Amino acid sequence: MDFFSDIPQVKYRYYNPKKMVLGKTMEEQLRIAVCFWHTFCWEGNDMFGLPAFQRPWLKSPQDKIKAGFEFLQKLGLKYFTFHDVDVAPAGVSLRKIAELIEKEMHRTKTELLWGTANLTGHPRYLAGASTNPDPEVFAMAVHQVKEAIDVTHQLKGHNYVLWGGREGYETILNTNIKQELDQYGRFLSMLVDYKHKIGFKGLLLIEPKPCEPMKHMYDFDCATAYAFLQKYGLEKEFKFNIETNHATLAGHTLSHEIAYSIANGVFGSIDANEGDLLLGWDTDQFPIDSAQYTHALYLILQNGGFTSGGLNLDAKVRRQSIDLQDLFSAHINGVDTLAKALIQAEELIKKNLLVSNLSSRYKGWSGKLGQKILKGEMSFETVAKYVETKGLDPEAKSGRQELLEGILHGLRD
């Protein structure tokens, strides 16, 4: 059955998979993936309303898989992502479905950017998965993740993501934080051991999330999650899958989370979407703000680009967008936004304007005083003495924020 026979092969305004950008094709620089959960599983329901979509592929898991790969071919994209329950709902064997996925991947020459397990939807995870007060629930989470990473490994997935939607708490009145953090640390340590045992070469990625559904999350943002990894000696084993809408819900920007992760050597991948700043929850809208992604890709490219990560379109159409054409329009907009941003980021790098301004701002630290301080060759007392001896009275210097914003948005050279 062809689910999209009435829709022609997609044409883009900016995205050209074979176009060379800074030494790689646009396809490999961006590594854009389509997700199964929002695209093929969501039925248009929300916390206030019943399902609004009538998707023809929801009759069986097999139809959903076939629709997914037909959709990828129509879009001309190479990568996809999934949660275990997206492709194998309750009562369906994930390993059996993986056989069909493997055949479709071979037929369409597509690749799995990453797999993950949904440890939040089932009622057993009401109080968390690895952080649950019941060790039997912890054991169920281990079993579920083992199956998910086994299938990800079988399908030659490039990464495995840990999406801890309920790894947190609702009230401190019934919560032992130290106990739960120790459980979470043990869970991740066990996963690391298993990853190496089976020879999975992809990255293990943690996806920080500040809220929703839990009020207090243990992986609130990249800084919180990195501190947690350091405490349990896991900072060398995990990197971050940063979602744009999660960053803004945490009171940050996507660029902040990327820059922080790069600074600490834990940047991995991106869930590309946007939130509605007038709403206080995760709306998962398709990326449309090219300037936001221009800066994000600029930072990533300056750091060498993606390794095994990429840009996963973790986004869903609006509830009133009920036609199949709307599903294509949303993805076309998202892909072209990312492609446009990549082109603009390349231009920023070639002009070298942001780098030159940044270098100029910190150039004092390359001088004699700055280097002696950084190398630990001066004590608190000797630095203070230096100020007295030299009679230092430095003047403030402009940060040139408005100029830099103009450069980022293409308004200034």
Q: How many DSSP H or I helices?
A: 16
- Global structural class: alpha/beta
- Gyration radius (Cα, Å) is 23 Å
- Please state the overall shape, judged from the principal axes of the Cα atoms: globular
As an assembly, this protein is single chain
Mean pLDDT: 96
Helix content range: 40-55%
First and last CA, distance = 52 Å
The unreliable regions are none
**Order of strands across the biggest sheet?**
3-4-5-6-8-10-11-12
Helix and strand element order? EEHEHHEHHEHEEHEEHEHHEHEHHHHH
Beta-strand level of the residues, as a percent range? Answer: 5-15%
- The biggest beta sheet, please? 8 strands, parallel, barrel
Number of distinct beta strands: 12
What would you say this structure looks like, in words?
By secondary structure, the protein is an alpha/beta fold. Helices cover 46% and strands 11% of the residues. It has 16 helices and twelve strands. It has helices spanning 26-30, 36-41, 61-75, 84-87, 94-108, 135-154, 177-198, 222-231, 244-249, 254-263, 290-302, 324-351, 353-361, 368-374, 380-390, 401-408, and strands spanning 20-21, 24-25, 32-35, 79-83, 111-116, 159-162, 168-169, 203-206, 216-217, 238-243, 267-271, 311-313. It has an eight-stranded parallel barrel, surrounded by four helices. Helix 6 (135-154) links the parallel strand 5 (111-116) and strand 6 (159-162). The protein is globular and about 80 Å long. The model has no long low-confidence stretch (mean pLDDT 96).
